[in-house]
Amino acid sequence: MIEAHGVRTRVVQAGDGPPLVFLHGIAGTLEAHMPAFPALAPHFRLIAYDMPGRGWSDKPDCSYTIDYLSDHLVALLDALAIEQVSLSGQSLGGWVAAWTAAHHPERVKKLILNNPGNVRSRPEVLAKVRASNLRQARYPSLDEVRERFAWLFHDRSKITDEMIWIRYACYNQPGFARAMEHISSILVPEIRQHYAWSQQWCSKIAAPTLLLWSDHNPIAAREDGQILLDWIPHIRLERFGDGEFPQYEETERFNRIHLEFLKESQ
User: Fold this and answer.
1) Of 110, 114, 116, 153, nearest to 36 (Cα)?
2) How far is it, in rounded angstroms, from Cα 52 to Cα 59?
C-alpha cells in the first residue's frame, strides 16, 4: 500500500528496468494486467495499481473524474520516485493515461492505449455500463459478475473463475456501493463533457503512441479508433480480433506488441 494524493493505494510491482505502469478499466482492479507480468517483468519495472475507489485502494468520498485520476497517477509516480514512465491503459485507464500524457507530457515516455473508453461518448453505451456498475455494486452476485465479463469478452472460454471471484470479493467490500456511485459519475454526460476526448487536448500528446483496437469490443465501434488516429500526433494502430480484454484473449501477442513497441528507439 502506497500513499498517493491522499489515497492509500494498492500497488503490485515486478521486474527491473524502464518503468511501465498499467491502468485498468472503469470498474476493474490491478489484476486486469497480471497476464502480462511473467513475459514483461524480465524487461521492465512493471507497476499495476488499483485506482482510487477500485479494488482494495482507499475509497474517498468524492467524484473520480479524469483529472482527479490523472493527478493521483502523477502523485503515485512521485511516491515511487519515477520521473518518466511508459503507460499502458485499458478502457478508462487508456483515457486517464492519454489525459496524463497530454497534461504532463514530461512524465510520459511512451503511451499504449488499449481500447480506450468510449471516445464518442455514446449515451446508450454509457447508460448501460453505469446501470451494470451500480447493480453489481449494490447487489453483488457471481452470476452478475460473470454476465458482465461475458458481455466484454469475445472468446468467453478465456473467462476464469479466479477473475470472477476477485471482482466479486471487491464488490462485497463495505462501502463499495457508494464508491461505485463515484466511479460511475464519469458516465454521466453532464460530468463527462468536461473531460471528453477532443482534438484540442489529444493534439498535445507528444509521446509515441500505440493504439490497440479490438474488432469485437461492445463498448466502442471501429470508427472511434480512427478518430484517435486523426487526433493524436505520433500514433499507430494494432488491430485485435477479440473483445475488451486482449491481454486475456490474445496474451502472447499483447505482450509481444508491448515489448516491441517499448524497446523501439524513439
Assistant:
1) 114
2) 6
Q: Is 158 part of a structural domain of the chain?
A: no
Locate 54 and state its grid cell: 477500485
User: pLDDT at position 207, please?
Assistant: 98
Domain span at 18: 2-119+197-263
pLDDT tens by residue, 15-40: 999 999 999 999 999 999 999 999 99
Give the pLDDT confidence of 165-191 residue by residue, as tens digits: 999 999 999 999 999 999 999 999 999
- 8 lies in a domain? yes
Compute CA distances 205 → 3, 5, 162, 243, whole Å: 28, 23, 36, 26
Q: Which amino acid would we find at residue 10?
A: R
- Burial of 13-39, coded b for 16+ CB within 10 Å and e otherwise, reads bbbeebbbbbbbbbbbbbbbbbbbbee
Q: Examine residue 37 and state whether it is found in any structural domain, yes or no.
A: yes
Q: Which of 186, 187, 206, 226 is nearest to 70 (CA)?
A: 186
**What average pLDDT does the segment 208-217 reach?**
96
Q: Count CB-CB contacts under 10 A for residue 60.
A: 17
**144 within domain boundaries:** no
The answer to whether 76 and 19 are in contact (CB under 8 A) is no
pTM over 0.90: yes
| Residue 39's CATH number | 3.40.50.1820
Please count the structural domains in the chain. 1
Across-strand partners of 20?
46, 86
